[in-house]
Amino acid sequence: NHHYNTVTRNRNDNRSEQYRFYRSKQWVDLRQSVLNHDHYLCQYCKAIGKLTPNSKTVDHIIPIAFDHKLMASSSNLATICNKCHRLKTKWEQEYYGTGQGMEMKNVPEISEISKIVLLMHQK
After folding, report:
1. Distance from C-alpha of 38 to C-alpha of 55, rounded to nearest angstrom
2. Sign of CA dihedral 32, 38, 40, 45
3. Of 78, 70, 89, 65, the residue nearest 34 (C-alpha)
4. 63 in Cβ contact with 88 (< 8 Å)
């Protein structure tokens, strides 16, 4: 775990900045604000008419690995359940090129949750 956090996670300046951000008071406050705003309901499930309560993860709609300027933007954050988070992460890796290889693709940013949900469930 220590090796992952100190070497893999911080493999470049952007990743190191992200790691520090997620441990900051700014993120803690921003995350709580989003959870309160969304009433702990997964916004991705909600987009298809399903209510999934007690969701406690806050997701960057457009991944910050793709556009780090959106890191602290509340309009780029939404509550997400674990199932949707796994699906969305997989979709982001295919669409944006995020993840371990970090080979970003030249694609338009998609910020509408309803459109992302449709794309997540296409495969």
Report:
1. 9
2. negative
3. 78
4. no
Count, in order, helices (H) and strands (E) of the chain.
Answer: 6, 2
Structurally, how many domains does the chain consist of?
Answer: 1
Determine the structural domain holding residue 31 and report its residue range: 2-120
Reported as a single tens digit per residue, the pLDDT across 111-120 is 999 999 999 9
SS3 category, 80 = strand
pTM for this structure?
0.85
Whole-angstrom distance, CA of residue 33 vs CA of residue 91 = 26
Biggest CA-to-CA distance, the chain: 42
Q: Two tokens at 34?
A: 């989003």
